[in-house]
Amino acid sequence: MASTKVVVDPITRIEGHLRIEVQAEAGKISGSWATATMFRGIETIMTGRDPRDAWAFTQRICGVCTTVHALASVRAVEDALDIRIPANANIIRNLVHGMQFIQDHVIHFYHLHALDWVDVVSAVGADPNKAAALARSISPWPNNDAAHFAAVQARLKKFVASGQLGIFANGYWGHPAYKLPPEANLMAVSHYLEALDWQRDVIRLHTVFGGKNPHPNFLVGGMASAINLDEVATINAVRLADVMGMIKKAKDFVEQVYWPDLVAIASFYKDWGAIGGGVPNFLACGEFPETDARDLGSLYFPRGIIMGKDLSKVVEYDHKKVAEYITSSWYTYEGGDDKGLHPWEGETTPKYTGAAKYDFLQGEKKYTWMKAPRYEGKPMQVGPLARMLVGYASGHKDIKELVGQALGKLQVGPAVLFSTLGRTAARGIETVLLAHKMQEWFNQLISNVKQGQTATFTKDKWEPHSWPKTAQGYGYLDAPRGALGHWVQIENEKIARYQCVVPSTWNCSPRDAQGQMGAYEAALVDNHPLARPDQPLEILRTIHSFDPCLACGVHVLDADGGLLAEVKVQ
Q1: Chain mean position to CA 373
Q2: H helices within 14-86, ranges in order?
Q3: Which residues contact 207 (CB under 8 A, 6 or more apart)?
């Protein structure tokens, strides 16, 4: 039977630049290729800069997870220079990063992924009273009433009647793969709209501790968050009370809206627990240190690797075993394109060999701007599922308990975790855990302040003359999308080399020299259906379950080589 070629470009709802090509036969996907269509290259502009400024540049890699590259960067520099930050700075970093996780995961579920499962147009035909009864059966959320749902439905009917669906345009509405009843669709659409306002409010925590959002301020040696309860322009009692309110608001929404919705929707799609598993290896670099980032025993989300879906053993992670390959990537290495380079030896030399215009990239030897990170030569999945699997296999009490509850509610076994559904569920599980953990971190900060501990910054080794002539460091960070690493080398007080391996590089990586697919590609050929090639809804479900963010992997490029803009950086 002849294969049908399908192209989805771009596939991401906000962060573009990701192109997916597949071949399908008899309703199943038989081949897949993931392509980042634009070049990043931010590493090349880091050379020669003051390492204390690196966080401000690398943070601009992404406009969504705006904290993660800054935090990974300051950790890399602090590791290189052996700087230990005050306890309050570590707590504040956890609060800032924790709220980033919570906001990011809720946005992902409702605004980037839920519409792969929720048919917006179907909600027009729902009974608001039945929708309210359904919603109240799973949550005490105040807006789960018939009047509120009727108002949402009225707004939706105006959209549909006008023929202009606005933010809901371009969906595959009416696709037979949608399974929710109209009332569940109306409930989900209502919470979709509420989440828009909610996320804008809770992320103000970044403005309190980081001065602004997006791109809050960070600082090598601590945080730029002076604490003085008697001053107006510092972190004082009013601002701390505001933070406490945001943490409560985040916890309430996660517990009463996001998590109940996720479990309810998942119950209609349990067949997706056997679809889209892909790469069987999972890497988590660990996150949320209770003391210092180098105290790996204090990480709330533990570090480790699961190989071959074997949950009986957690393999120790060593960043020195990471290497990036470019067999299928539009780059060249000085020593040859067939070898892998550790980031401390990494090179970013673009060499585009594709056509100026193309219909298909499948079949090309090089077909993406993504490199192919491998751990001891093996492809890895990173992200919430990797973290929850490592935690589960490590015996993490909170993770084991909540994973067990979720599996019990859905009446499924642990095997469904290795799937498209598993990735989406894992993201919700860790959001619930972090929504609880935020209050603990906040209480620790208040306790320290009450005891007179207000330091958030250390001057130790701030001055360049106190640094060694050469130094190198590794800054890990398990970001919302997965394991992130920044590697820096410093010579004569300046950055000599800088490399970033981001979560979407791990998951979106192309084939390596052994022909091993990356996580996106492997997931799409793992028992994966495709009912209608002209409406590839199933592809969206699996790729969106990874929460791809190609802005982290790539940046703007004019295909004709023309100048897009000139930016002068002081």
Answers
A1: 17
A2: 54-58, 68-81
A3: 213, 216
The amino acid sitting at 276 is: G
Sign of CA dihedral 303, 306, 312, 314: negative
Annotated catalytic residues are 15, 62, 65, 69, 481, 504, 549, 552
Closest CA to 525 of 511, 539, 536: 539
- pLDDT of 407-442, one tens digit each? 999 999 999 999 999 999 999 999 999 999 999 999
Burial letters for 249-280: b for 16+ Cβ neighbours within 10 Å, e otherwise?
A: ebbebbbbbbbbbbbbbbeebeebbbbbbbbb
Six-digit token pair at 214?
Answer: 């997006």
**For residues 456 and 454, what is the distance between their CA atoms, to the nearest angstrom?**
6
CA-wise closest residue to 509 among 175, 281, 353, 317: 281
Q: In this structure, what DSSP letter does residue 163 have? A: T
Report angle CA 224, 227, 228 to the nearest 5 degrees.
140
Instruction: List CB contacts of 220: < 8 A, sequence separation 6 or more.
Output: 51, 52, 55, 74, 77, 78, 81, 83, 462
407 pairs with which residues across the strands? none
Query: Model confidence over 461-493: pLDDT tens digits?
Result: 999 999 999 999 999 999 999 999 999 999 999
Q: How far apart are CA 308 and CA 285, in angstroms?
A: 18
What gap in Å lies between CA 554 and CA 38, rounded to an integer?
A: 5
* pTM beyond cutoff 0.70: yes
